[in-house]
Amino acid sequence: MRARTPSGVELASGRIPERIVPPAPPPRDDSLESLPVWGFRDTAFQVLPNRSVVLTGGRYPLCGAELPDLVPWMETQIGIAIDPRDVHEPSYPPALPEARSNPAFLEEVRKFLPDGALSSDPEIRLRHGHGHTQEEMYAIKYGMLPRIPDLVVYPAREEDVEALVEAALRHGVCLVPYGGGTNVTDALRCREGEERTIVSVDLGRLNRILWIDTANQMACIEAGAVGRDIAEGLARYGFTVGHEPDSIEFSTLGGWIATHASGMKKNRYGNIEELVLDAHVVTARGTLSRSTAPPRESVGLDARRWIFGSEGTLGIVTRAVVKIFPLPELQRYDAVLFPDFERGVAFLYDLTREGPVPASARLMDNLQFQLGQTLKPRTAGLAALKSRLEKLYVTRLRGFEVDRMTACTLVYEGSHAEVAAQEAVAKRLARRHGGLRAGASNGERGYQLTFGIAYIRDFVMKHWILGESFETSVPWSQAIALCENVKRRVREEHRRRGLPGNPFITCRVTQVYPTGVCIYFYFAIWYKGVEHPSEVYAELERAARDEILRSGGSLSHHHGVGKLRERFLPRVVSPGTLAWRDALKEAADPRDVFGIGNQRTDTRA
Amino acid sequence: MRARTPSGVELASGRIPERIVPPAPPPRDDSLESLPVWGFRDTAFQVLPNRSVVLTGGRYPLCGAELPDLVPWMETQIGIAIDPRDVHEPSYPPALPEARSNPAFLEEVRKFLPDGALSSDPEIRLRHGHGHTQEEMYAIKYGMLPRIPDLVVYPAREEDVEALVEAALRHGVCLVPYGGGTNVTDALRCREGEERTIVSVDLGRLNRILWIDTANQMACIEAGAVGRDIAEGLARYGFTVGHEPDSIEFSTLGGWIATHASGMKKNRYGNIEELVLDAHVVTARGTLSRSTAPPRESVGLDARRWIFGSEGTLGIVTRAVVKIFPLPELQRYDAVLFPDFERGVAFLYDLTREGPVPASARLMDNLQFQLGQTLKPRTAGLAALKSRLEKLYVTRLRGFEVDRMTACTLVYEGSHAEVAAQEAVAKRLARRHGGLRAGASNGERGYQLTFGIAYIRDFVMKHWILGESFETSVPWSQAIALCENVKRRVREEHRRRGLPGNPFITCRVTQVYPTGVCIYFYFAIWYKGVEHPSEVYAELERAARDEILRSGGSLSHHHGVGKLRERFLPRVVSPGTLAWRDALKEAADPRDVFGIGNQRTDTRA
């Protein structure tokens, strides 16, 4: 659908259309989502008796196809025979800690929240006490979480959030904002030492698009709206907010702000901090809000900027005004094969210099390229996969090596002219760097896999493989060395511990900037027979982060800090920065109402 | 000069050039600048006996040319006969308050600062106690400033700044960071109630480009470096930071960050918050710094973001890492005439929708268009000017009305292809909106005038005209109404007070965004015979701001708040925002070392 945007002629004549107020959406159906694993309830990878893998349901292009190559390929990579019948059965739900009640708080809250807006259901409480780190997912399936929220509330109005904060202040309660629960930083994990009643504030009922201003291309959206619903709600009127994190199906606008999120198409639309024009935030010192949302301002100390990256520690975002864009005239996928990762990086580098840069550009390393090939529905086995790759035009005629070649997937987006310009540059630069274009369908498939691949982690966990992703950002000149260093380090640490099989480690460049890139790693280990596998994995992940920091990388490009990476903060910022930050948190929230305790660098539990 | 940037091939091969460390620049020669008026000492407007005006010196294209039309045209506009011999002679320097000394502080500071790094010269102290608001400029010429800094210090190293802050904390001194002194918000004006010794920290000796990283396109620059020196220093290596505020000749990198500045070419390079990758800030709780400057991060509460717009109240920026860009292959000016302002706005609106948007696009209103015409060196008088305009092709053949037509000036910048694309869209849209292209030289002239026009205010002040600029940002749909409302309101207020002559009020659109524009007003009044003219002007300016806010405009697009607009803060942000902000300032700087007191909304003096 194309946007019905006014033209300058209408603007000059004063005939500006009114803001559109879309009908309120139906309440979000949380039952669609799985509690113990990532994603939709109807979607999961399964191994068939013939060792082929299939993704259930019908949500993704990948669904329903038999994938014979995945298991054998994984066996080769990890160096372990996988027996599909040997399943590490989850014992979900785990034993749950007793809820701590705060009767005075509850009494007050019942005055403004209806019965249906409170839940003390144990599994609901559990779900609100974790995100999707391997530690958390392993714990809910094979261990336990020693502390989870004691109560979940579902405010449907901004005033209810304000009243909740006031009640929490009065009665010594700890509040934890909850959006989509998709974080991968332990940001929702409750501290064991938290003695107060912990109340999870689920923003799922604050999910309306309040207005769409087509003339000025902005929309006001409640913080609990989920990415996929925002996309659908705006598309109905011909617009998009353009923010597409990999978690878009489940994560929320408020969560994007709190974690300082990045979207796949940021080259065209910007990252979240560039998209948000204004935000309402309920804090312990009152609500942060403004009278207007001008295009750009210099209004002194600007509280809105402080909320990005606050990860639940400063307040609850209730709504935001965001930029919107007419749906693009055209979207086209592309893929380019390169003989090696280095040449792919060189291609991306020149793309940022000689642009226009496509809406998205991603470069897989060789292992990830191979993984993508195993997710193709073919009837042959591993040998056939290798032979198929060797028969490819590029390997036969161009001398690409099967175990070195890489693929870059691209999304061109915009007007016909913009798409043509993006494509022309990509084509020219691909040639310069020995790349071969592999067609739109390969590019599209690469992007579609993103959402399916998210289900793999929970699938393989049952089969004794513990995996996780982590990311960083780094200047261009250090990018290739960083990838190599991290892979080497992880292999060394794995070997040093005498762990079974080989570690699986692969990376891709997922974002490009003029000054550097975002690099995204997948890392997995075989854990059968390993004692405390989750802790061992965490150790290796910390070693990888150590290596990232040594190699000039950042603590995180878009996942954030949470509790998973807080221990590294003193390595990347000065003591003054930490002191300043602690003083500001103390000032903004002296009673630590927003006590989820992310980014702590002191010795508190 | 073109940049010698590495290509991706070099990157992939590991042959990345080292960072360039440019030689240290000579100490900044402050004697080039005028103390009592804007700009360079050798540059000023003067009236000749024949009532023509001339700009002295040779710095600007305008210099040396006799401008016969300016005075007669101003007389018509203001409705007052100007007698060039009737000069309101400034009594600069005004009486100056005694310096308050703090011997213990002085003793400590002398241990690490050499003699030449301290000044108690009265005129130097005065210059460090004001910016360029009309109130301040009127006060130093015809009144006085009741409180100015007691001492000026010139640290040359970051450690000296840290030591200064420590000494200030120990001895109860108030520190005021000083960059170029170009603010127009009373941001440097000292509060009368400040009892402590006020020490101005002039960053002029922290003016080096520390390194240039050509591979990753970033540079580390000390905060006291002036815009023109940064531009020159980077151009030597083929780069630009692309930030061009109108004050670029005098303002500094640190000042840009503290005021949250905007540059003329932000469409191509971004505003200051988009250009800065990292900053070192010396605060009362230690120095904020980090180990790396990655392209983008999510690292939790991020102190760097809090410094934008802090206007000297939170700390002293000592250096920053900024993005840099290869000098553009091509730069081309353009100008388009429109029959009226409305059609010009419609053109700009469509430009943001159908782009690529040129590096800069500015639209004058009719009065400003006329002003531009009077700054042309012709030998005829006012009648000739009118007749010249009427003889223009556009007025003769196209029916443009001399007192309605407007001009839009454009800067295309980038590769040949980018410039061609920017120009093609501008051409097409100009046609759509009845515009006529007026050629590159008219466009270039429009931009060159920017720097010359800055000298007009101090020139006319001597001739009984008090003028000032102010700006706002506003969504597109409210832009035209805002311009009309402000002009009407100012005229009404002027009339209501029975002030002599007519008010002079004109505006231009100086920045475009997808969601709105920045509008820049010039406003002047004839003040001969007016009691307390500076206060009267300030009243009218506040009325204009009131009207801006009523019309949906922001408190400021890029000038900032300072003390000039702090009274309006409670109208644009919620009480919670103010409480939050005050708590954070208190936490970050409990002893108010950075006590210049901008953005105060409480009742302190």
**What is the average per-residue confidence, as pLDDT of chain A, rounded to a whole number?**
93
Percentage of helical residues of chain A? 25-40%
Shape of chain A: globular
What ranges of chain A have pLDDT less than 50 throughout 5 or more consecutive residues?
none
**Greatest chain-chain contact:** A-B, 114 and 114 residues
β-strand amount of chain A? 15-25%
Termini Cα gap of chain A: 52 Å
Strand order of the largest sheet of chain A: 17-14-16-15-19-20-18
Oligomer state equals homodimer
Total strand count of chain A, please? 20
Our count of helices of chain A gives: 22
Structural class of chain A: alpha+beta
* Main beta-sheet annotation of chain A: 7 strands, antiparallel
Task: Give the radius of gyration of chain A.
Answer: 24 Å
Tags for this entry?
7-stranded antiparallel sheet; 605 residues; 18% strand; alpha+beta; 22 helices; homodimer
